[in-house]
Amino acid sequence: MRTHVAALLLGATVFASGAAGMATGAGDTGRLALPTYSQAYTPTTVDERGVWMEADEDERRLRESPSVIRDPALNAYVRGVLCRTVGDDRCRSVRIYIERVPAFNASMAPNGTMIVWSGLLLRVRNEAELGAILGHEFGHFELRHSVLGFRNRRSGTDLMAWASILIRNSGDIQYAAIGQIYAFDRAQEREADMIGFRYLARSCYPGSAAADVWDHIMGESDATALGRRGRAQHKYVAGFFASHPTELARATYLRAASLGIAEAKSVVVDTHQAAMAAWLPIFLNDQIKLNDFGGSEYILANLAAGSGWTTPLLYARGELYRERGNPRDLVSAAQFYQEAIGRGDAPVEAYRGLGLALLRNQQAAEGQAALATYLRLKPAAPDAALIATLVSQ
Amino acid sequence: MSITYRTGLSALAVFALAAPAMAGNTLIPPGLRVAVAKSAMTVVPSIEWNKLGARPGRNSESWTQDGDDLNDLTFYGGIEAGRPLFREVDKKNQPLPKVSATMLITDIPVLLENSYRVALGAASFKVDLVEPLPFAGNKGVRFTYSFSKQNETLQRRGEARGAVIAGKLYLITYEAPGLYYYDRSAAAFRAVAESVRL
After folding, report:
1. In this structure, is residue B120 part of a structural domain?
2. In the UniProt record, which is one GO cellular component term (chain A) (predicted)?
3. A3 touches chain B (CB under 8 A)
């Protein structure tokens, strides 16, 4: 199946991990050194040519995909962060595709195709955090992880096949071979984490951002679990079939690495919020429609911790509470909408949300008044006729 | 509606369970009033439809002309409060939004949209037009929408009519690829939807 093969060959995703600790001694630029980079690398072996051929095919398909966000400003911003993280010479050949998928992930193919999901852009709070993830993905590319991972899987499954033919009771060998395949994936992810950290440490961004990302991802998954009445738990040791080290392990070793270097960087002007301004309401809307109250609330609070409760955040929070729709949620939702409206730059839809929240909370007169305001301000709204029936009830 | 299962394993498991049911597809003749979705809802089709043996959920059923990926007419017959619109694939990690007895009429398109966004990864889902339209003599809603599933380039269009009656959700949806198929069976869908009675 194409997608399976493609998934196997794609540079391991953000959720994977890696190997031997690349030490980060205090101020030791030697230990933060990067491998020599060669421009316009072309694949050399038959395996690598095959992996590249498939990646080229996937990229051709991706380029036509309707889910790719083509906004030049947003693309330029993401490219700018990648270039500031890994350096201009390295970033030049990368093709970045931002896909509108509301989940936290990014990936990089062996031919230099980088895919960034919109959910990642929503979750990072500044350039440094975005740079940490992009650097990790670029690390997979620079270290040629796709072809190495492919060879590892092939030799592992070869071993399993031969063992099943030649050796009686080969279960233990097969078990070990499967374990080795996944352990290798995790080692690659850790290796990419550490080279990503070295890019970050050598860039204008603080090295601690890499660990911050994983702290927030853990916080979000806890919030999601609690919101669904599940149990929040984080393990340090990855499971047998895990393709990535656990989030706790990654946060821990990346934090340790960032504490191990002496950083005296001047603070850069962060353009993340400005670059995201036009897209934030859209990405927030995609997130809050996923029926994940806890996780969405965490993301909103996390963004508000960086920027304060801005109008788009308040409006999105109103929508989130209104959609869950417990009586207490409807009261809160109405407050968030009113706060957003009070700022003067709320979208007209805030009146619609306010009216519907009040109406559902049996405050008919106030609700109808808000809906009437919505209709007055946006008479050509696509749902105007339906809202009008609620006003005239 | 048809769900593409994400993991090979669950697809296999579902296929194993669904295979005998699929053998139970039946032809619905035109011009006769039939009860649909194991409910009191009845409709009169204007042309022949194939009723699929596999149901999207407990109180629902799907009809098609050429296969459910090409034209899919689905009836949801009285989904109770606290239940999702259709069967949940991953209840723990991807729970679907539930019907609520206090839903407003404007919440019906939102429920369908959010269910598709979760179940199909349809981040491009867009409700195009929403208007009031009586449903089986009750206050109802008609809306059109468009979406494509994650990792698919095919653009699909849909039209739905529904109402919340006595705290239960009644909904009829029609979906097909925007290219050729949508227009071809849209009139047949509207004939079915306009004949609905409870």
Report:
1. yes
2. membrane
3. yes
Distance CA A28, CA B31 (A): 83
Helices A145-166, A171-202: crossing angle, 10 deg rounding: 170
Cα–Cα dist A294/A298, whole Å: 6
- Spans of chain A, pLDDT less than 70: 1-31, 393
- A–B interface: beta-carbon pairs under 8 A: 71
Instruction: Kindly state whether residue B176 falls inside one of the protein's structural domains.
Output: yes
Look at domain A278-391 and name its CATH class: mainly alpha
In a domain, B3, yes or no: no
- CATH number, domain with residue B52: 3.40.1000.10
User: pTM, whole model, 2 decimals?
Assistant: 0.86
Global ipTM: 0.84
Pairwise CB contact (< 8 Å): B131 & A64: no
Residues A386, B105: C-beta atoms closer than 8 Å: yes
Residue ranges of chain B whose CB lies within 8 Å of a chain A CB: 8, 92, 95-97, 100, 102, 104-106, 110, 113-114, 117-118, 121, 123-124, 127-132, 139, 141, 148, 150-151, 153, 155
Residues of B whose CB is below 8 A from A291: 95-97, 114, 118
Contact A385 B127 (CB under 8 A): no
Residues sharing a CB contact under 8 Å with residue B71, sequence separation 6 or more, in sequence order: B64, B65, B174, B175, B176, B181, B182, B184, B185
Does residue B150 belong to any structural domain of this protein?
yes
Identify the residue whose tokens are 């934090």: A255
User: In this complex, is the C-beta atom of A290 within 8 Å of any C-beta atom belonging to chain B?
Assistant: yes
Closest CA to B90 of B61, B115, B111, B119: B119
Q: Give me A281's structure tokens.
A: 């309401």
Domain count, chain B: 1
Task: Indicate yes or no: CB of A385 within 8 angstroms of CB of B130.
Answer: yes
* More confident of the two residues B13 and B145: B145
Domain boundaries, chain A: 2-259, 278-391
CB B126 within 8 A of CB B146: yes
Mean pLDDT for B92-98 is 90
